Amino acid sequence: MKSKRDFQFDAIVIGGGIAGLQSALDLGDQGYTVAVVDKDATIGGKMIRLSKVFPTLDCASCITTPKMSSAAHHDNITLFTYCTLDNLKRESPDRVVAQLTQKPRYVDPDKCIGCRKCEYDCPVYVPDDEQGGFNMRKAIYIPFSNAIPQIALLDAENCALCGKCAKVCPTDAVDYFMKPEAITLTASTAVLATGFELSPLDQKPQYGLGRLQNVVSSMQMERLLAPHGPYNRVLRPSDGREPDSIAYVQCAGSRDKSLGIPYCSRVCCMYAIKQAMLLSGALPLADITIYYMDIRAFGKGYEQFYQNAKAMGIEFVKAKVAQISQADDQKVMLRYEDQEGSGGVMERDHDLVILSLGMVPQWNPEGICSVGCGQDGFIKPAIPKIAPTVTDLEGVFTAGVASGPKDIVDTITEAGAAAMEAANYLKALNGSTA
Amino acid sequence: MSEKEKKANSSAMKVLRQERSETIAKARAAVKEQSGVIKGIREALTPAPKTIPEIAEAVSMETEQVLQYISTLKRYGIVGEGAKDGDYFKYELTC
After folding, report:
1. Do the beta carbons of residue A9 and residue A187 sit within 8 Å?
2. Is B57 on the interface with A (CB under 8 A)?
3. Tens-digit pLDDT string for chain A (434 aa)
4. Residue A304 Rama label (left phi>0; alpha psi -120 to 50; beta)
5. Who among B20, B66, B76 is closest to A161 (CB)?
6. Cβ of residue A134 closer than 8 Å to a chain B Cβ
7. A239 touches chain B (CB under 8 A)
């Protein structure tokens, strides 16, 4: 595939989540031209998919959407969404080259006005991963209501090619013949802000391998709690019942050598407490229990947040859950050793169980970029103590969870630091060529 | 679009349909099944609003699948949430 489009920027940011957007905005505001590359059809990353953030309980969308919008409308920032990164290489001290593939949207981005007429008329329903799989989207769709850009994309794997979307489109934007397109970006520096994935729900036989009814991941729970979530309220996914008893299983995907994830993901304690507090508000009569090994409330205001949760009546049980199984009446049975109180092996049924899954790297640079990674798969900072955003690849920096688990506050701080390192690198280059 | 362009587009679509015949067949089968389920749910809700277990019984489907359909139909404005009935909500047709 020959590169059809070549672009030149000062900096390339890989990842359009909160870290990538913050780095891009900080660089763009200093007058540098920036390309933001995202594999998804929309920028915003994980943060735009969250309900609220801890410990302030601010609406995640209310914080993220203005950043997304600022980046999209910034004179110095260009978005490359729905693109895969095929190669990122430093060719010389002042030249880093990124080869991308623009995946076909089958909708002309210059013509689409985001009216969603195509989506409403499409006859094919497809489980919507954006909503945790709890409801369905259409085969042609806009990912979610505040996606940026607001451009539809067609899922060719599920398209019946009935022609209805093309027929109703007021701007003739649907193009069934679109092909992948190669793009080459050239810049002097790059920031890797590739983020994370949650560890898989189906990895632990003791926890039902993802096959148990009413056992959901923490990200699925975020969607259930979000105002534009699949049910617009919290319901038991197996039958739509309002749950009376909800449990969180901590360290379900971290601090577990058997899963190959021996490290602590740092944010699970706090997001579980946050979700539990939101659930207390949404379902005041429900019993909410958090089964934990130890609570890691490390950030500013986090310990108080934890104490507030206890004061609200959320029950904290010190125990590592050994087994999760299906009980009668679509309930979920937890078997655990009570490490406080009377002790011993206990069993308890709950209507809904959330696995607090850990963070694993979203991106494996192997074969794409020669940046070094640690044993955990996250990008390895070259000088972790005094310059955590510097990588072992000259003029290539990292920000956010790409280099290891961290919360939003630390991610944004680090994104600013990566932008500053990148700006210093550009300044030094310009000085040397002046 | 001129007649010549229309003809060229029509033959290109024919080729594309052949290339994607497998996915098209899968999608069409899905549409057929989904239309049947949605028709059943509409019929179940026509006389009166119902809860998920009541709809599931009426259409002989698992409650989990019915909830997925109901939340989807709610998203596209076909079904609305009604009054609460015990621990469940009732759902009603909006159009």
Report:
1. yes
2. no
3. 545 689 999 999 999 999 999 999 999 999 999 999 999 999 999 999 999 999 999 999 999 999 999 999 999 999 999 999 999 999 999 999 999 999 999 999 999 999 999 999 999 999 999 999 999 999 999 999 999 999 999 999 999 999 999 999 999 999 999 999 999 999 999 999 999 999 999 999 999 999 999 999 999 999 999 988 999 999 999 999 999 999 999 999 999 999 999 999 999 999 999 999 999 999 999 999 999 999 999 999 999 999 999 999 999 999 999 999 999 999 999 999 999 878 899 999 999 999 999 999 999 999 999 999 999 999 999 999 999 999 999 999 999 999 999 999 999 999 999 999 999 999 999 875 44
4. alpha
5. B20
6. yes
7. yes
* Interface with chain B: mutation pick from A119, A126, A136, A332, highest number of B CBs within 10 Å: A136
**What single string gives the DSSP state of each residue in A302-349?**
HHHHHHHHHHTT-EEEE--EEEEEE-GGG-EEEEEE-SSTT-SEEEEE
B72 touches chain A (CB under 8 A): yes
Contact indicator for A107, A153 with CB cutoff of 8 Å:
yes
Give the minimum alpha-carbon distance from A133 to chain B in angstroms, rounded to a whole number.
8
Tell me which of 1.20.1600.10, 3.40.50.300, 1.10.10.10, 3.20.20.210 is the CATH number of domain B3-93. 1.10.10.10
ipTM of the complex in this document: 0.95
Render A105-121 in DSSP notation, one character per residue: -SB-TTT-----HHHHH
B52 → closest Cβ in A160, A239, A244: A239
Helix (H, G, I), strand (E, B) or coil at A365: coil
Domain A200-358 has CATH 3.50.50.60: yes
- Write the CATH number of the domain with boundaries A3-196+360-433: 3.50.50.60
